[in-house]
Amino acid sequence: MKYSEKIRKKLKEKNISVLDKVKIKKENKTYRGILMPNTEMSSPKCITIKLKNGYNIGLEDLGDLKIQKLKKEEKKENKLKIKQDKSKPKISVISTGGTISSKIEYETGAVEPALKAEEIIAHTPEITDYAYIRNYEQISQLTSEDISPSTWLELAKTVKKELNNGSRGVVITHGTDTMHYTAAALSFMLTDLTKPVVLTGAQRSIDRGSTDAPMNLLCASIVAAESDIGEVGIVMHGTMNDDYCYFIRGTKAKKMHTSRRDTFRPINDKPIAKIKPNGQIKKIQNHSKFQDKKTDTEIGFEEKVAILKAYPGSEPDALSYYEDKDYKGYIIEGTGLGHVPTQAKKTWIPKIKEITDKGKPVIGTSQCTYGRVNPNVYKNLRKFYHEAGAIPAGDMTVETAYVKLGWLLATEKNEKKIMEKMKENLKGEITERSLPETYLY
């Protein structure tokens, strides 16, 4: 449905088009915003504008509405335009894209990355109450699904540079869909890390009234500037409301909901800390401590690692497909305690043994989000893990197991050591005991 003929005529007379900035006067009140296209839900007699706070307002034109086109603001050189106190702890902010750097393209209604690092920071000037932003950098403008291992390598190098050049912590803005992959990758690639490296993002774009971006960014900056944490982690909303955020260890985080603001939860673990936007940090469990030391890296990733899902009726031919393409390792997302079809007509066991006999690692994980793989409970499990030679992943998430194996295959050339390290807890990815309180935390 379009605007009424009367409104269209008025807009044409004023040379006003959709997405122009306008000022509207009605009933002795003045409104400023962006002229929006009319929707099927709107009355053709109402003019809709988007206010500065991100919300839309519809104003009915009964002949008393006056509208004026505002001049476009000149684009100026991108600089951080917030006042800073150099006595505050120094941090760096690195932007990769994602919803936190996105805004709505109103002609199509689609959300796409468009904001640069300095623009994201400008939406949260409260950061400077806790930190001095020593440097801000844009390394990509990608949606989360387009992040690749090459981004992880570049991030690891950039984080090392920032931490070793004066920053006591780093904040990385990132799309939420694959943020836990990146957090796990940085956890393994940043060796000797003793400073906070905090990934954060948003479920709602920064130009929406319900955006979670400013609070997430603020809480992440508080952790980077003031916490005694020396690990990689994710900071996002802890509830649907603007109550607090959690800092979750990078190898134990997972996105659990497509759209909730509190989508990230710790899996088989507790959060490390609760952070309030007033600067309060409450510790929940033990963690590596902050120390002002140099950070090193062990960078690399073997991309020929496959994740395969076992399900009723699934065939081992899927493994053959990747074998023909010379894949170097496999993550099997098995059922329950880590099963694959074993006594079934389409058994996976011979094919898995064929792969492991070549010295290629096959890692068994579970489709269950919580709990751990156990290679000893059932006869079929013993065939998979003991006879066929698969390695149980403990209570690692599928995503972390994938990242860990790809990293080890690229940085460790000894096959035996790769197998051994997959079973070891290197960066908090495997817990010694399953605690009941970590379920659905």
Question: If you had to describe this structure to a student in words, what would you say it looks like?
Answer:
With 441 residues, the protein is of the alpha/beta class. It has three domains: 5-69, SH3 type barrels (Roll); 90-297, Rossmann fold, CATH 3.40.50.1170; 305-423, Rossmann fold (3-Layer(aba) Sandwich), CATH 3.40.50. It is 24% helix and 24% strand. The strands form six sheets. Strands 9-6-10-12-13-14-17-18 form an eight-stranded mixed β-sheet, sandwiched between helices. It has a five-stranded antiparallel β-sheet with strand order 4-3-2-1-5, covered by helices on one side. β21, α7 and β22 form a beta-alpha-beta unit. The longest helix has 16 residues, at 149-164. The chain is globular and about 85 Å long.
Comma- or semicolon-separated keywords:
441 residues, Rossmann fold, 3 domains, 5-stranded antiparallel beta sheet, 10 helices, 23 strands, globular
**Gap between N and C termini, in Å?**
46 Å
Class inferred from helices and paired strands? alpha/beta
CATH fold name of the largest domain: Rossmann fold
Shape field? globular
Low-pLDDT stretches are none
What's the CATH H-level homologous superfamily of the largest domain? Answer: L-asparaginase, N-terminal domain
CATH class of the largest domain: Alpha Beta
Overall pLDDT metric: 91
> How many domains is the backbone divided into?
3
Total strands: the figure is 23
